[in-house]
Amino acid sequence: RRRIEPWEFEVFFDPRELRKEACLLYEIQWGTSHKIWRNSGKNTTKHVELNFIEKFTSERRFCAPVSCSITWFLSWSPCWECSKAIREFLSRHPGMTLVIYVSRLFWHVDQQNRQGLRDLINSGVTVQVMRVPEYDHCWRNFVNYPPGKEDHWPRYPVVWMMLYALELHCIILSLPPCLKILRRCQNQLTLFRLTLQKCHYQTIPPHILLATGLIQLPVTWR
């Protein structure tokens, strides 16, 4: 298996970094076997999701009709075109399950991307925002960390994880975007603006709103 370097993990999976390139860390488990096969991939001329699908279908040993479970850890969520390609890929392999963890949402205000994620979830794919346990898991299993540094993964601000999780709920529930991300080019700061409407307060479970630490409830709408 190929491990990535610590600096690669830091720049690709930091939720505050708006890096254009994407990185995919993935695990494959066949049938009832407890053995997990791990590898990684990055963008080439195609998105990492398409590269994975091409690699998976081109290797002879992947053609056997055996069930398997796949877990992706993506630095960016799939765009609408990749979401469509993933659904088509899974439809050709009915014995396959896919769980996707993402550190950031790709152009999340774009309606096609939002619909693409909804279609992906409705097709049976699990999509979640990476939290502390997922970051820790990736660091231990995919990163070439120095000896004795297995616990020293970059401690990203939890608030960013919660903000993306909140926005993902908006996408799933077909609500308007509530998270706007800004980049100040002079000092390379990534900022956010949270704009909640009446429909957000009425539809999103309170514990998800409160988890950001930026919202106080109850809010009464008349």
TrEMBL record:
<comment type="subunit">
    <text>Homodimer. Interacts with A1CF; form an mRNA editing complex. Interacts with RBM47; form an mRNA editing complex. Found in a complex with CELF2/CUGBP2 and A1CF. Interacts with HNRPAB. Interacts with SYNCRIP.</text>
</comment>
<protein>
    <recommendedName>
        <fullName>C-&gt;U-editing enzyme APOBEC-1</fullName>
        <ecNumber>3.5.4.36</ecNumber>
    </recommendedName>
</protein>
<keyword id="KW-0963">Cytoplasm</keyword>
<dbReference type="GO" id="GO:0005737">
    <property type="term" value="C:cytoplasm"/>
</dbReference>
<dbReference type="InterPro" id="IPR041547">
    <property type="entry name" value="APOBEC1"/>
</dbReference>
<keyword id="KW-0507">mRNA processing</keyword>
<comment type="function">
    <text>Cytidine deaminase catalyzing the cytidine to uridine postranscriptional editing of a variety of mRNAs. Form complexes with cofactors that confer differential editing activity and selectivity. Responsible for the postranscriptional editing of a CAA codon for Gln to a UAA codon for stop in the apolipoprotein B mRNA. Also involved in CGA (Arg) to UGA (Stop) editing in the NF1 mRNA. May also play a role in the epigenetic regulation of gene expression by participating in DNA demethylation.</text>
</comment>
<dbReference type="GO" id="GO:0008270">
    <property type="term" value="F:zinc ion binding"/>
</dbReference>
<dbReference type="Pfam" id="PF18774">
    <property type="entry name" value="APOBEC4_like"/>
</dbReference>
<dbReference type="GO" id="GO:0003723">
    <property type="term" value="F:RNA binding"/>
</dbReference>
<comment type="similarity">
    <text>Belongs to the cytidine and deoxycytidylate deaminase family.</text>
</comment>
<dbReference type="GO" id="GO:0006397">
    <property type="term" value="P:mRNA processing"/>
</dbReference>
<dbReference type="GO" id="GO:0010604">
    <property type="term" value="P:positive regulation of macromolecule metabolic process"/>
</dbReference>
<keyword id="KW-0378">Hydrolase</keyword>
<feature type="domain" description="CMP/dCMP-type deaminase">
    <location>
        <begin position="1"/>
        <end position="120"/>
    </location>
</feature>
<dbReference type="InterPro" id="IPR002125">
    <property type="entry name" value="CMP_dCMP_dom"/>
</dbReference>
<dbReference type="InterPro" id="IPR050610">
    <property type="entry name" value="APOBEC_Cyt_Deaminase"/>
</dbReference>
<keyword id="KW-0862">Zinc</keyword>
<dbReference type="InterPro" id="IPR016192">
    <property type="entry name" value="APOBEC/CMP_deaminase_Zn-bd"/>
</dbReference>
<dbReference type="GO" id="GO:0016556">
    <property type="term" value="P:mRNA modification"/>
</dbReference>
<dbReference type="GO" id="GO:0004126">
    <property type="term" value="F:cytidine deaminase activity"/>
</dbReference>
<keyword id="KW-0539">Nucleus</keyword>
<dbReference type="GO" id="GO:0005634">
    <property type="term" value="C:nucleus"/>
</dbReference>
<dbReference type="InterPro" id="IPR016193">
    <property type="entry name" value="Cytidine_deaminase-like"/>
</dbReference>
<dbReference type="GO" id="GO:0016554">
    <property type="term" value="P:cytidine to uridine editing"/>
</dbReference>
<keyword id="KW-0479">Metal-binding</keyword>
<dbReference type="GO" id="GO:1903311">
    <property type="term" value="P:regulation of mRNA metabolic process"/>
</dbReference>
